[in-house]
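Reopening: structure tokens for the uridine-5'-diphosphate complex, inputs below.
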Amino acid sequence: MLTTLIIPCYNEEQVLPLFYRSLTETAEELKEKSEFEFIFVNDGSKDRTLELLKELACKDERVTYLSFSRNFGKEAAMFAGLKNAGGDYAAIMDADMQDPPSLLPEMFRIMEEGYDCVATRRVSRVGEPRLRSLGARMFYRIINRISDADIVDGARDFRLMKREMVDAVVAMGEYHRFSKGIFGWVGFRTFWLPYENVERAAGETKWSFWSLLKYSVEGIINFSQAPLAIASWSGIGLTGVSFLMILFIVVRKLMFGDPVAGWPSLACIIVFLGGVQLLCMGIMGQYLAKTYMEVKGRPHYIIGETNRENVTKIS
Ligand code: UDP
Ligand code: MG
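Re-run output (same inputs, fresh job):
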């Protein structure tokens, strides 16, 4: 049996040696159960990551590196890895030790109980900025209420999957990928393995608060049509309100005559309606923009350099 471990790396020169050591230890521990191949995806790093990967590939033939022509993002890196994974099992892991390789033996054991997938979730967010934890919790609450993909709070991308599931995930060829949603959407029997949050071993996170916010909006737009429904319902609601207002004004005019008054309220109403209209147009625009990108059918990633033959270089 062969297991593919996929590691997206973006500017990870500081942790790579450490991570690789712990990876080989785990592979050694598991050697009776499975052989391993390691696919490192260099996502356009600007530091020495690629050189380090080349060195690793020289001394360890299990190592494959796929080096992107520029930074395409972690989603694209995961997609490239899964697309080129040859194993019966595949797992995605971060390079910063936040997805500890030491969990793998336990994950293998659980797979044998008849699951298709063992996914990990953090039960604590120790060491994470407050604002970020709060934002994350709100995001999960919202998206689970309005979308049909079930997305678990604290879920990591670190999961061990069977071939069937990998194929299903790769078959989802959308340009705007939101893996947490895709994994939930494809189904399969999944076991959730809880663990305590581990802080990044070295180097720093690639996610700012804003990039996370953008990513969560992406998730909502990709897996839910609720914002569109909100737009249409607020349109219907406001139309109803405006009828009532017309009625009120006509009746008042008939009963009391109409001294000119009330322009401030009129100004407020106009501004309010203008705002709601722009908001709804914005929501529609978001979906339209996504459609535009999907229709173009651009590749998710471009591999500029690799040490392996027969990889899908553009997809
Ligand atoms: N990563 C990547 N491309 C990017 C950003 C991040 O391949 O554009 C990789 C990064 O090297 C790491 C993983 O994705 O292996 C998770 O990134 P990070 O640790 O910065 O995220 P966090 O754990 O803070 O959410
Ligand atoms: Mg990390």
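The beta strands are 2-9, 35-42, 63-68, 89-92, 117-122, 155-162, 190-195, 303-306. The two ends are 27 Å apart (CA to CA). Marking as resolved unless the reporter disagrees.
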